[in-house]
Design brief:
heterodimer; A: about 270 residues; mainly alpha; MetI-like fold; 14 helices; B: about 290 residues; two-stranded antiparallel sheet; 13 helices
Chain lengths: ~270, ~290
């Protein structure tokens, strides 16, 4: 790249914004090891005394252990349900090109645009009607529905890449839909399945408003996202709050550090399909 | 991919369609019904009152404030976010020195949930928090304020958080899209002596214009609809109504003030705003040719 005035400006701008992104994260991490007094008096300095016990206090106050189990359970079941629904649908849509198939695709495309929040209150009513208000089970059923439009559209795209010749030869061998799906389509569309899994797991893990209003704040069912803000009180110990936040964000960052390329691909794929 | 038995295979889409109908389309449709009910909280029996709620909502000053705040929120956030993100994404795509660090940082807000973002900024923006500490540190004591508790800064602060999260994340998406363009086109423009700005806006931008439009629509919808969560965590719509948006009003009326009919009238208004905004963005960013892929 040739250095130019524009290039210099871009460099300055891009690093200023990076600094703006990093500063709150740095502040969070150093606060996690401080007392309130130190947070207030020396906000950006490294802790004078490293208060590791903030982490223990946060863990106990928000009952994060149980919350983590709940989050894992809900996200885990929801992703299985999502794939069980979306994979066969995508297979069918990838193999059909008629008015009906286009209408179904159109339905999902429209559904992708409307954020689930639009129907938050009627969804609460639905949970009550089904007798599942205040349970984890409702989220396990509901989250897949909110994930379906994008999952189906993405998987269909990946399954369209299966070479027709391969399908024909497998069909000549007498393979039915089940064999075709499990032996031909899913293996070839595996990068798509991986992307959808990562993308939706992250979405489920991070879901907040529906978990708060439907699953609720009872310690035995609440998720991490709901549990953590309960630390906030009139006289909040900001160090403990920061420590809890670090603990709650950590699983996602660990996952990201292990498979950052994959994750970046998955999340960008999710938005590229508009 | 034509296949002789293809029409029948569409049965496999039925489970997902049923699921989608029950949990997504159903509630969306129910919103219009609830908007016609007098319903004082989820434990009570609703009664039908027709269009009465609409009159109540439109006469309420809180609703007017919410319309204004939502309009300000999207009118500031989106026109700042999208061009800035495009420029940063373009820069990222030129693989400048340290671009790996940049892209990890830009990507970060996409990993952090809204409730964690709320908790991070609860600390950063508290009266004795990071922002005020920084201002005092550089001698701007008079600028320090209770950002979220001051009616003149609450909404602006929330918009700033939207931008903090949205710009970097959108930039990464633009970078990914730009990376898929044939490199020769941009190189050719540069050999022709086109400056950086001209290459960016007159060569690269038109080629991804449809994608810019898609992201602008998505960011618009997400900003408009999902602001309730952050507001609930940070300001509860206050002080007064200074940070009440339509999205938060839907939530607050249903859960704190137990007026479900009112809440869902606002919900319908929000939906109509969303649709109108989408058409506006589509018209503003119409691609010059249909083949601009």
């Amino acid at each position: 790249m040739r250095k130019s005035k524009g290039g210099l400006l871009a460099t300055v701008l891009s690093w200023s914004y990076a600094l703006l992104l990093a500063a709150p994260l740095y502040y969070l991490v150093v606060s996690a090891l401080k007392s309130n007094i130190e947070i207030f008096t020396r906000p950006f300095a490294l802790p004078a005394q490293w208060l590791w016990e903030n982490f223990g206090t946060a863990w106990r106050t928000a009952d994060l252990g149980r919350a983590l189990v709940n989050s894992v359970l809900i996200s885990g079941v929801a992703i299985v349900v999502t794939l069980c629904l979306a994979v066969p649908a995508a297979y069918a849509l990838a193999r059909t090109d008629n008015r009906l198939a286009r209408m179904i695709t159109g339905t999902f495309s429209a559904g992708f645009l409307i954020p689930p929040f639009a129907a938050l209150i009627p969804t609460v009513v639905l949970a009550i009607e089904l007798g599942l208000f205040g349970t984890r089970e409702f989220q396990m059923l509901f989250l897949p529905a909110s994930a379906l439009p994008l999952s189906v559209l993405l998987l269909t795209q990946f399954m369209r890449t299966v070479p027709p010749a391969l399908v024909e030869s497998a069909a000549l061998d007498g393979a039915g839909h089940w064999r075709l799906l499990t032996r031909v389509f899913v293996p070839i569309a595996r990068p798509g399945v991986v992307s959808v899994t990562i993308l939706q797991l992250l979405t489920f893990w991070n879901e907040y408003l529906f978990s708060l209003t439907i699953t609720g704040t009872a310690p035995d069912v609440r998720t991490v996202q709901v549990a953590l803000p309960t630390i906030v009180a009139d006289a909040t110990n900001l160090g403990v709050l920061a420590a809890g936040t670090v603990l709650a964000v950590l699983p996602v960052y660990v996952a990201y550090s292990i498979m950052n390329r994959r994750m970046q691909e998955a999340l960008t794929a999710g938005a590229v399909k508009g | 991919m034509p296949s002789t038995k293809s029409p029948r295979v569409l049965w496999l889409t039925v489970p997902s369609l049923v699921w989608f109908a029950v949990f997504s389309v159903g509630p969306l449709a129910a919103m219009f019904v609830i908007a016609t009910l007098r319903w004082k909280g989820l434990l009570y029996e609703p009664t039908y009152i027709g269009l009465e709620n609409i009159g109540r909502v439109f006469a309420d000053p809180t609703f007017h404030a919410a319309v204004r705040n939502s309009a300000i929120q999207v009118a500031v956030a989106i026109p700042v976010m999208i061009p800035l993100a495009f420029m940063l994404g373009y820069h990222l795509n030129t693989k400048p020195r340290g671009y790996r660090v940049l892209s990890v940082l830009y990507f970060s807000p996409g990993l952090i949930s809204i409730s964690m973002t709320g908790m991070i900024f609860y600390g950063v923006l508290s009266p004795n928090g990071g922002v005020n500490g920084l201002l005092r540190g550089i001698g701007l004591d008079s600028w320090a304020t209770a950002w979220l508790a001051d009616p003149s800064t609450a909404l602006a602060t929330l918009i700033a958080i939207d931008l903090w999260r949205g710009v970097g994340w959108t930039a990464v998406l633009f970078a990914a899209r730009l990376a898929s363009l044939p490199a020769e086109v941009i190189e050719a423009a540069q050999i022709d002596g086109a400056g950086r700005l001209r290459t960016m806006w007159q060569v690269a931008f038109p080629m991804v214009k449809d994608y810019v439009r898609t992201l602008a629509m998505l960011q618009f919808l997400w900003t408009l609809f999902t602001s309730a969560a952050l507001i609930l965590l940070l300001t509860k719509g206050g002080p007064g109504t200074s940070s009440t948006t339509l999205s938060y009003l839907v939530y607050a009326k249903a859960f704190s003030q137990r007026d479900l009919g009112y809440s869902q009238v606002v919900g319908v208004v929000l939906l109509l705003f969303g649709i109108a905004g989408m058409f506006l963005i589509r018209a503003l960013l119409r691609s010059p040719e249909e083949d601009s892929r």
